[in-house]
Every structure is written in structure tokens, then in C-alpha cells.
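Priority: low. Protein: Cytochrome C oxidase subunit I. Input follows.
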Amino acid sequence: MGRPDEAKNARRHEGSDWTNQVEGYLLWQTRVQDAKCRARAFTEAFDWLTTSQRVEIERRYIGDRLQCEEQDLRRIVQRAADLRSEYEQRYRRLRLRCTAVTVSAVTAAVAALAVAVSYLP
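Result:
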């Protein structure tokens, strides 16, 4: 059976995943609404369009805009993953250095103490 802190971390991770999914959904819905508003604003300038032409242009505009948005979001996700990996590597190296310095300092202190004790009568 797992330790209690492992279960707590697993629940926190699940909650974080759910939160990220909701945040991603809301972000995407905002992008969709923005694309629709921009499409309407774009076609309003062409008052000579028929309703079916206006609908078709708006549909294509929205599709193109959302495709661009998706590409942008994918690039952002990839960049975030790259940065996370880079910082994890840096943190790992820093942790190793700190551990090495601590072990060296403790070893030096123990050696100094051993030398000092050897001179005691």
C-alpha cells in the first residue's frame, strides 16, 4: 500500500490535470468566440454579400483563424515543455552540487574533529 503523502500527491496531480483541462477548454472557447466576432466584423464591411455568402465567408474565416490559434497554442505547449525540461535539468544539477558541497563540508568537519580529538590527552 502506498504512503499517505503519495496518495495526497496523486490527488493533487489529478486535481491539477482537471484544472488544466477546464482552463484549456475555457481558453479555447474564448478563442472561438473571438474568431466569430472578428468574422462578423470582417463581413459587415461587405454589405453587398448575400446571407449565404456572408455565412460561408464567416465559416471559412473562423476555420482559418482557429487553425492559426491551434498552431500557436501547440507551439506554446511545446515551448513550455522544453522550458520545463530545461529547468528540471538545471535543478537536478544544482541539487547534485548542493549535495556534493554538503557532503564535502561534513566530511571536512568530521576530519577536522578527528584530528582535534587525536591531539587530546
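The mean pLDDT is 91. The radius of gyration is 30 Å.
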